[in-house]
Design a protein that fits this description.
Order of helices and strands: EHEEHHEHEEHEHEHHHHHEHEEHE
Number of helices: 13
Mean pLDDT: 94
Structural class: alpha+beta
Radius of gyration: 23 Å
CATH superfamily of the largest domain: DNA polymerase, Y-family, little finger domain
Helix content: 25-40%
Number of domains: 4
DNA sequence: TCTGGGGTCCTTTATCGG
DNA sequence: TCTGCCGATAAAGGACCC
């Protein structure tokens, strides 16, 4: 059995622990409502007003004029996260961490008997609370997708166990959007075709599926909808790309300003490459226009590079290409590197 | 003055060498 | 020589997730 663990309103919960005067008041961790900020996490008091993650901070303020805004303190959350996962691993050593606030636990590695799964999950929940005072929700099932959906059923602080054999029946009545992999676009198309529940998705034929979502992806999501998910736990994943991007407070069209921004971001990317001792063969520049559309241009080099100047040089040339293909003021620029490889010094002699 | 920043993965299209 | 096809790889875009 697998368990999916999800920390409840993680960023907001940490802020409440650090400053008890915030507790119970509507709280948003995220960007400034007076500029282009969005909500990263809202605590449950704020959610009561309809405030949700990814909502613009300005909209959040409109829904609850008394809401308190706190900017994100990522390094603090990383510390708490370390403490959480350390506590988890003391009970379940085999885990796959997915991002800062969730992950999968291989309960079977401790006890293969499915009847012991609930007790193990309860022990994990208690250990997290004891170590950090944080609350988390857990889902327990035979595969990842069902465990993940289950962890979301009884938030906050919940534990939902789906016995083996009950996967499809558990998923069937749920809203189709609750299935991971169904985003806004797929949801819209499915609803237009009258598919509103996971169960309805599970019973679609291949042709309909192909027309609505696309062949390969459609078949995979239908399997998931049936509670079939062969993905194993990935206990170590290496990073594929490193990037930085920033939205300007006001749209920018001045080329020199954009170059300067790219240079700054290239320096940050280079610093992160250096920490890992890696070089990169691909540089990508991304721009976002006033109408929110995104364009990217990339080059792949014969040999890896790792200095800020080299990355910035390519990034600026790519920016020129993007802007000559489609001129216009930009609300965002970003630079990222991929095709990472270990940087090797030339062998001596 | 709606709409962040960090990513991953998949699909389509272009290009190039047999 | 021309054309078509095949496979590999890059590039670009789009959807999705936390």
């Amino acid at each position: 059995m697998i368990s999916h663990l999800d920390l409840d309103a993680f960023f907001a919960a940490v802020e409440e622990l650090e400053d008890p005067s915030l507790r119970g008041k509507p709280l948003v961790v995220g960007g400034d409502p007076r500029s282009r900020g969005v909500v990263a996490t809202a605590n449950y008091a704020a959610r009561h007003y309809g405030i949700r993650s990814a909502m613009s901070s300005a909209e959040a303020l409109r829904r609850c004029p008394g809401v308190i805004f706190v900017p994100p303190h990522m390094s603090l959350y990383v510390e708490y996260s370390h403490a959480v996962w350390q506590a988890v691993r003391e009970i379940i050593p085999v885990v796959e961490q997915v991002g800062i606030d969730e992950g999968y636990l291989d309960l079977a590695s401790v006890d293969p008997d499915p009847r012991q799964a609930r007790a193990l999950a309860e022990a994990v929940q208690a250990a997290v609370r004891a170590a950090t005072s944080l609350s988390c929700s857990l889902g327990v099932a035979s595969c990842k997708v069902v465990a993940k959906v289950a962890s979301d059923r009884r938030k906050p602080g919940g534990l939902t166990v789906v016995p083996p054999g009950r996967e499809a029946a558990f998923l069937a009545p749920l809203d189709v959007r609750t299935l991971p992999g169904i985003g806004p676009r797929a949801e819209e198309r499915l609803r237009a075709a009258g598919v509103d529940t996971v169960g309805a998705l599970a019973s679609l034929d291949g042709a309909t599926l192909g027309a609505l979502i696309g062949g390969k992806l459609g078949l995979m999501l239908r399997d998931r909808a049936r509670g079939i998910d062969p993905r194993p736990l990935e206990t170590s994943v290496e990073r594929i790309s490193i990037g930085h991007e920033e939205t300007f407070e006001r749209d920018v069209s001045d080329r020199e300003t954009l170059y300067a921004e790219l240079q700054r971001m290239a320096a940050r990317v280079a610093a992160r490459l250096a920490v890992r001792g890696d070089a990169a063969r691909t540089v990508t520049t991304k721009v976002r226009y006033q109408d929110f559309s995104i364009r990217s241009r990339s080059v792949t080099l014969a040999a890896g590079i790792d200095t800020a100047d080299e990355i910035a040089g390519h990034a600026c040339a790519l920016l020129d290409r993007a802007l000559s293909d489609r001129p216009g003021a930009l609300r965002l620029v970003g630079v990222s590197v991929s095709s990472l490889e270990p940087f090797r010094q030339l062998p001596l002699g």
